[in-house]
Amino acid sequence: MASEDTMVAALLREREGYAQLGLHDRVAEVDEQLRLRGVKPPVGEKTNPTKPSSRSTPPKGRRTRSTETA
């Protein structure tokens, strides 16, 4: 049964990623796989993507490298 739990956890992570990207058709496919495994898909979650973070800003808690001068 542990492998089934692992699969469900992986499907839920996959679903979250698709939802953040706005891939609603993929979300529906993952929901179908969850139902086949006896798990009710999450309902009412925000599936619209949020504003993507800029790649030029460092993640929170990290500092940018100082530029070296020669």
Rg from Cα: 18 Å
Average pLDDT works out at 80
Number of helices: 2
Total strands: the figure is: 0
String of helices and strands: HH
How far the N terminus sits from the C terminus, by CA atoms, comes to 60 Å
Q: State the helical fraction.
A: 40-55%
Shape label? elongated
Sequence-ordered SSE layout with sheet pairings:
Layout: H1 2-21, H2 24-36
Helix pairs in contact: 1-2
Relevant terms:
70 residues; mainly alpha; elongated; 0% strand; 2 helices
Q: Can you walk me through this structure?
A:
This protein has 70 residues and is mainly alpha-helical. The chain is 47% helix and 0% strand. It is built from 2 helices and no strands. Helix 1 (2-21) packs antiparallel against helix 2. The model has no long low-confidence stretch (mean pLDDT 80).
Summarize the structure.
With 70 residues, the chain is mostly helical. The protein has helices at residues 2-21, 24-36.
